[in-house]
Amino acid sequence: MEHVLEADGLGKRYGARWALRDCTLRLPAGRIAALVGPNGSGKTTLLHLAVGLQRPDAGAVRVFGETPYENTAALAEIGFVAQDTPLYRDFTADDLVIMGGKVNRRWDATLARTRLAQAGIPPRTPVGKLSGGQRAQVALALALAKRPRLLLLDEPVASLDPLARREFLQSLMGGVAESGTTVLLSSHILADLERSCDYLVVLQAGRVHLTGAVDDIVAAHRQLVGPRHDGGPVGGVAAVVRARHTDRQSTLVARVDGPVSDPAWTVHELSLEDLILAYLDSGDARANHEAWGVPA
Ligand SMILES: Nc1ncnc2c1ncn2[C@@H]1O[C@H](COP(=O)(O)OP(=O)(O)OP(=O)(O)O)[C@@H](O)[C@H]1O
């Protein structure tokens, strides 16, 4: 299987503090991958390392087998839309399409203009006067016009209303399905991801918490509800991700390795959103409370 992006023990620190640590992952070609994690978990840092904006302090990241930092040839294959969709605000969308043609080897101006027309973007209005959602559409059209083999998007839908978000993700999926581009997009809006992404990377406190194909991850987890459980082994359960208890009842989110046949447990499938939340919830809440000197 071809891996577009490979990270091995990748780390980045600011001063003494690691923003990303021991990050090892493989992103297979042709996937639309979601990069999720709480604020400050290292998503932007990982994307910046992948697009060569930053140099690793530990380990390595490779894109199409190349190290992206200060590597112009590798960067020609990567499209990147940064968190705040920075665009030259005094230029019109049409100016930006023309400029893109001057600085990119492979540039599909017709693709950009078609997408901008479909999104209803006026060609001759300075982009600084467009709405946040319209600017996001301009940034996506420009990134796709580069015909990248890997597209990295940092919270592309954060500024969009629910309808615009759905349209943006549909148009993204349509755009990359045609071209076979691999996508890694960070987002906090988990409900959208199950529809649009087929691969998942969950970061927590700078480390990879969970990664793999969405179908495999969903198939390997269940919610179990049963009488209060003391933490001993449960047949069919490989690992408990999160346990919640009342006086009489326990609710487990578990990774399973076979059928849970004990009739004491009622077994439910989980949505991707609930599963991700369970992983994030199982994280280092205790460490955060200790840092603030308050009880968890
Ligand atoms: N320029 C910087 N200088 C110092 N620390 C930084 C810098 N950029 C990021 N950090 C720290 O690195 C960690 C990871 O930040 P990063 O922006 O990668 O997280 P994120 O997951 O993208 O967060 P968010 O969801 O809030 O955008 C955080 O603890 C952050 O405070």
Automatic annotation (TrEMBL):
Superkingdom classification of source: Bacteria
CDD domains: ABC_DR_subfamily_A
GO molecular function: ATP binding; ATP hydrolysis activity
Residues of the ABC transporter domain: 5-230
PROSITE patterns: ABC_TRANSPORTER_2
Keywords from the UniProt entry: ATP-binding, Nucleotide-binding, Transport
Signal peptide location: none
Gene3D superfamilies for this protein: P-loop containing nucleotide triphosphate hydrolases
UniProt cross-references to PANTHER family, sorted A to Z: ABC TRANSPORTER ATP-BINDING PROTEIN ALBC-RELATED
UniProt-recorded name of the protein: ABC transporter ATP-binding protein
Organism for this UniProt entry: Dactylosporangium aurantiacum
